[in-house]
Amino acid sequence: xxxxxxxxxxxxxxxxxxxxxxxxxxxxxxxxxxxxxxxxxxxxxxxxxxxxxxxxxxxxxxxxxxxxxxxxxxxxxxxxxxxxxxxxxxxxxxxxxxxxxxxxxxxxxxxxxxxxxxxxxxxxxxxxxxxxxxxxxxxxxxxxxxxxxxxxxxxxxxxxxxxxxxxxxxxxxxxxxxxxxxxxxxxxxxxxxxxxxxxxxxxxxxxxxxxxxxxxxxxxxxxxxxxxxxxxxxxxxxxxxxxxxxxxxxxxxxxxxxxxxxxxxxxxxxxxxxxxxxxxxxxxxxxxxxxxxxxxxxxxxxxxxxxxxxxxxxxxxxxxxxxxxxxxxxxxxxx
Length: 335
Prior knowledge:
Layout: H1 42-49, H2 54-61, H3 65-71, H4 74-87, H5 94-97, H6 101-119, E1 136-140, E2 143-147, E3 152-157, E4 163-168, E5 175-180, E6 184-189, E7 192-197, E8 202-204, H7 207-210, E9 215-221, E10 224-229, E11 233-238, E12 243-249, E13 255-260, E14 266-270, E15 274-279, E16 284-290, E17 297-302, E18 306-311, E19 315-320, E20 325-331
Antiparallel strand pairs: 1-2, 2-3, 3-4, 5-6, 6-7, 7-8, 9-10, 10-11, 11-12, 13-14, 14-15, 15-16, 17-18, 18-19, 19-20
């Protein structure tokens, strides 16, 4: 038995195909890196900054550390000294030269903000959020959380000014303070910590592990909650193990308010009128800021370099955190 022979068709194209492995020659186009203002060197930026007024320099100093260092340069400082003498020939530059340019820019920013508050226009939005007075309000990421007036915590959208979520407080336990992030709300209820998760589940720390001396304020930074207590100590709780992991002695008087810095320092105000800064990694005090108010500090607000404190008798204090010194204080109103 013979196998049939396979038939082949002759190629009609006389040009042999090019092998797949044959090299191809393409011109590599050189990529051009776009030139931005960050590509300019310090001398060029210094020349550009010389055309700006003082308040524009304040804005530039907040862009990045590189720009802030340029604003401290000697050449730019000498230019503004000459500009000051040119605008006021009869004045001396002594007041200018004895201050750093950064301090001068800070004073310009404070004066500009004060004028804006006195003369500027404001658009105020108001809406009824609770049946009783609201004593605590937190705002983060375009969301406002209010409470400590009735038995409910409400979460509001700043886009629609509508309540998007609400959380009930357990009966017979007063809500003292709270803080939140994108996934949960942590509240200080009596002498316990309570967690409201955004999916609706709620949990309260067991009394043997979460109970402590009466707390008056708290702050939360995942995974830890810091509670300021009446014995002058801050108790740090791990929100996952639900145990007190650290006790930091801050004051000899009850703690009234807390705030956290970006580098995780704990700042606390007390009824004695002082503000203490501590490092939880070493449990050591970094600094103590003192005010003249014997009625105590009620609230703290920390910016990039400035710490603001409101007292119980209506005074507002401002400290420069880079030098740990009091810049100014004003009497505004009684809380």
